[in-house]
Design a protein that fits this description.
Layout (H helix, E strand, L loop, with lengths): L9 H20 L2 H20 L6 H19 L5 H17 L4 H18 L6 H22 L5 H25 L24 E2 L13 E7 L10 E10 L4 E3 L4 E2 L11 E7 L6 E2 L1 E2 L2 E2 L5 E4 L4 E3 L7 E7 L11 H6 L9 H13 L3 H14 L3 E2 L10 H9 L1 E2 L1 H14 L4 E8 L2 E2 L6 E4 L3 E9 L3 E5 L1 H5 L2 H4 L2 H4 L15 H22 L3 H10 L7 H23 L8 H14 L11 H11 L4 H16 L6 H13 L7
Parallel strand pairs: 13-14
Antiparallel strand pairs: 1-4, 2-6, 2-17, 3-4, 3-8, 3-15, 5-10, 6-12, 7-11, 9-12, 10-11, 15-18, 16-17, 18-19
């Protein structure tokens, strides 16, 4: 192999395969120009390995690298940050493979692959991703062993890699348990803080929620300490929208407090909620929440809000009091906002509301009549509502009569405001799917929902769900049962795929355990673990001491394992050494280079009276040691008995 040829042979193919495996997650998630270029470079390297063609000149590789930088500037407007950095790293690895000529270059490529493996956790931290990284790590170690010792079989390199990986597990556990935990992802750069997330937004327009129904992405999980509330109470509040411009609903001003401002009454439901990262500040909670949540506030519209966007999985425990009356003493200004309507907006719906107001004096009667009006309109609940124009409420109620929950809630609130009943829209999630494997309630994007709240003088703010009134099975039995026959459902909502559903239950239960016990091992849990192992008043100094002690003990054990060890003799060798020691008492020493027959002849000459015993023992040992038949326990025991009986006197 010359200086200008690429590294070839089985080790080269294994190297390319390992790098491709490390690149795979990036190729599926990053911008397609980078993925396409990386695949082309890998195919080029594979062709070089098969054809033994000269490696490309470094000038060409430098030009490709500069092209990648230009592509990053065009795509991301920068070369820094998570997305741009990972994209550039995914190009550097195949570029390094193209110039790989020696084992040293191959080791550098494997080091670069290790950086890529670390970067995979910036994409996702799921158990599936961890398993993929583990497989890739095994491949990197096996390939490194192949590069270090060419000619080793794949099975041998895999065995070496597995032993190295197992050797590192104790150190990994020590670092996991005692390395200081920092809440929030360490890798999140300011430039990445605004990364988009799918889910509810801080405004609602016709069709904005129905578009989420196709997503089976998990938003949060809830684990109840006792019974789970009935479906009619499973309303997870996110945002209260009280400002309306005729088409779009937006959140208004809400004051925040450290504790809820309402009296807690009625039955309590206590639960632990694990919220996935959403890059939004609102926290999902059942009506009406109570409990201490770090870095969170209770808003005057009865929602729960984080002080900063949730960019990492958040776990907290709450209590819900769904029968608590709220807003009885609501001020004039919030009620005025909840009555405002833009001029010349949805005139037919407003006219219907004013007509209801003239016919019924009490607010409760107006609310009931509004629900009846929507029921009499025979509205159809559908995942594919038609596109609405400027007067969305009018078109929904009087023209196409097809809509999703946001259409029902928006039209009802417009009607109630026109009827002089303060009303507002609330968005969040409704219901959830109980996982029978781990008993958690799983709420997905497909559970997104919008409902209404009206203010009544003697009851305060009261939830009214126009969707439930028109399609009651939506609340009691889920979205799938409320849709018209024949309407296509997302896979996550189909009840006839029992096998896939059961597999999904099991996978999500396992993944939830991973989230709770591995990704959920935060600073509080770490300190609690230290208390459980008998360390009172744990602090960072004790944590550092435990970490240092654990590392020192493990390194000491590794050092002891690396010391040269005396070879263990088998029982047959021990018998022969004992026989040689007995003869050594008579100055008949066995030399390491001396054969059995030579030593036997010399011993017989020195002790002629015991020549027969010496010959018998030596011949038996030679047969057992060098014969075709493996020595059995009975044979070794017989030889041991002869040696024990052999005890020549000095006079002999």
């Amino acid at each position: 192999m010359t200086k200008h040829q690429p590294l070839t042979g089985p080790g080269s193919l294994q190297l390319i395969l390992t790098c491709s495996l490390a690149l795979a997650p990036f190729l599926a998630t990053q911008a397609w120009p980078f993925s396409a270029l990386a695949v082309l470079l890998l195919l080029w390297r594979l062709w070089l390995s098969r054809s033994r063609t000269l490696v490309p000149p470094r000038v060409l590789l430098v030009l490709i690298g500069l092209f990648g930088i230009g592509l990053s500037l065009y795509q991301f407007k920068t070369v820094f940050g998570k997305d741009a950095g990972l994209a550039m790293l995914s190009l550097l690895l195949p570029l390094k493979l193209l110039e790989t000529r020696s084992s040293r270059d191959a080791r550098v490529a494997m080091l670069l692959a290790c950086f890529l493996l670390t970067g995979q956790f910036l994409i996702a931290q799921t158990m599936a991703m961890a398993s993929l990284v583990l497989i890739c790590t095994l491949g990197v170690l096996a390939t490194t062993a192949q590069v270090q010792q060419p000619g080793l079989s794949f099975r041998k390199t895999l065995s070496i890699a597995a032993r190295l990986l197992l050797t590192g597990i104790p150190m990994m556990l020590v670092l996991f348990l005692f390395f200081p935990r920092v809440d929030g992802p360490l890798w999140r750069l300011p430039i990445d803080a605004g990364g988009a997330r799918t889910g509810l937004s801080d405004s609602m327009t016709p069709g904005s929620i129905s578009s989420l129904i196709q997503s089976g992405e998990i938003v949060f999980r809830a684990s109840f300490e006792g019974e789970i509330p009935p479906p009619a109470l499973l309303y997870w509040r996110a945002l209260v929208l009280n400002r309306f411009d005729g088409r779009t609903w937006e959140a208004g001003l809400a004051l925040r407090g450290e504790a809820p401002k309402y009296p807690l009454e009625g039955k309590q439901y206590r639960y632990t909620l694990t919220l996935e990262a959403q890059n939004q500040p609102w926290l999902l909670a059942l009506d009406y929440p109570a409990g201490a949540v770090s870095d969170a506030y209770y808003m005057s519209d009865y929602s729960l809000r984080s002080a900063r966007p949730v960019v990492a999985r958040k776990r907290f425990t709450l209590s819900a009091y769904p029968h608590t009356p709220v807003g009885i003493d609501e001020g004039l200004q919030p009620r005025a906002v909840a009555l405002s309507l833009p001029e010349n907006s949805n005139p037919r719906t407003q006219a219907l509301g004013r007509r209801i107001a003239t016919q019924f004096a009490r607010a409760e009667q107006r609310v009931e009549q509004g629900i009846q009006a929507m029921q009499q309109a025979r509205l159809l609940y559908t995942l594919s509502p038609p596109t609405m124009g400027l007067h969305a409420a009018d078109e929904f109620l009087f023209d196409n009569k097809k809509g999703f929950c946001e259409h029902f809630a928006s039209a009802f609130v417009v009607m109630m405001r026109a009827a002089n009943v303060p009303a507002r829209v609330v968005t969040g999630y409704q219901g959830g799917e109980l996982n029978p494997i781990d008993g958690t309630l799983v709420i997905r994007q497909s559970d997104a929902h919008a409902w209404a709240e009206v203010w009544l003088a003697d009851r305060g703010w009261v939830r009214i769900d126009p969707t439930a009134a028109s399609a009651p099975r939506r609340i009691d039995q889920g979205i799938g049962s409320a849709l018209p026959a024949g309407e296509a459902l997302p896979l996550t909502l189909r009840a006839n795929l029992r096998l896939l559903t059961n597999l999904r239950y099991r996978w999500e239960a396992i993944n939830n355990g991973w989230n709770q016990w591995v990704l959920g091992y935060n600073a509080d849990r770490q300190l609690d673990f230290m208390r459980r192992i008998g360390i009172p008043d744990p602090d960072w100094s004790k944590l550092a001491a435990l970490l240092g002690t654990g590392i020192a003990l493990w390194m000491a054990w590794l050092a002891l394992q690396s010391l040269p060890k005396r070879p263990r003799r088998d029982p047959l060798d021990r018998c022969w050494q004992d026989f040689c020691r007995r003869l050594g008492r008579h100055n008949i020493q066995h030399s390491p280079w001396e054969s059995v027959s030579t030593f036997t002849h010399r011993a017989q000459m020195a002790l002629p009276a015991h020549a027969d015993d010496i010959a018998r023992i030596s011949e038996e040992y030679a047969v057992l040691r060098y014969g075709r038949k493996a020595a059995q326990q009975d044979d070794i025991a017989r030889l041991r008995a002869w040696i024990n009986a052999f005890n020549p006197s000095r006079r002999s």
